[in-house]
Amino acid sequence: MRLLGLLLITGSLAACDNSEQLEQARAQGRAEAAAEAQRLALLSDQQDEAQAEYEACVDDAAEARETFDRAMRDARDNIMTGLDNVSSQGSDGALTAGFAFRVQIESLTAEEWAWVETEEAAVADGYNDAGVSDRISYEVDPRQLSNRVQLVTYNGMPAVQIDCASGNCIRARGRRVGFYNGQQAFEDIDERRDHIVWALENSNRAQVVRDALATLIGGAKGGAPTASCTAPAAE
């Protein structure tokens, strides 16, 4: 009987130990599961935050590009609408003088500007008449131009002056016709120039065109805005 009692007591103690170990294992499992759930929740939050930052970066980049493109379009439109046929005429006694100027834009891209200038000037005094007529095509890479576009006067009219940043960056090709008392002389032109001048109708237009030219030159030199947006890694 005594031996049986000892066996029962030993068995009870063993069962108690196993129960405690099982409970400890369960508690540890619950703790590990909770820690894993917390880790996954934190990881999910981090991924959500990274995704939100990525989407915000993409949106900001798109907005910046749209703003840039709109500024370039507006500048081109201001130049196209600001340029017009310009003419003037004056007299001093028997002496009369006339001037006409026109710019026809062919291209205003970030890599190439191309246009045609037509200019006529004439003077007469009742006995003699003389004048000159130019039709010249111009080409230039706007990235080679100076950012500083100047307001000047040309034949007494408001004008803008576009300068090369260095050297003679502007290609000029065309023909000049001179005349004197009915006699004509022709000169073919193919040269490079360091600046050009556009006459405008009034000072307000000159200011608008000057600002628009500076905007286009700056945009061509700086290029469209870019952003490095890194997409979050896939789970």
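(ticket continues) Second input and output from the same batch:
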Amino acid sequence: MSLSINDAQVFGAALKRAKKKKHLTQAQCAELLVHSVSFQKDLERCRCSPSIENFYHICRTLDISADDCIFQDHHDRTGSTYQELLRLLPLCDEKALSVLVATAVALIGAGSISGSDSLSINVCNSEI
């Protein structure tokens, strides 16, 4: 199944950003991802979409969030603070994650996130 044109544009833009961030040419990126330069160009120009296996490989190899490849939103998710937090999350245990959730809820304001009541309840019931 092919991506819609909008989805392909979001993916292509994410791929270009990751390539630029790593200071890679199209040829270098294609070599790193073990596919042809023409396939790389087609992905960036939204002429084709990767298989699920290629999508996974591209995200893992270029350190791209799958969300950034699929969802287009207007929040800055490329900043160093955001990326540092994403890098640290897998290193956290449940207790640390609960503290992070509670902190985020407090910073954002309990009324401004949907589902914040359940987040607050889960955090309060965890062993912090």
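Agent notes: Residues 5-21 form the longest helix (17 residues). The two ends are 45 Å apart (CA to CA). Closing as not reproducible unless the customer responds.
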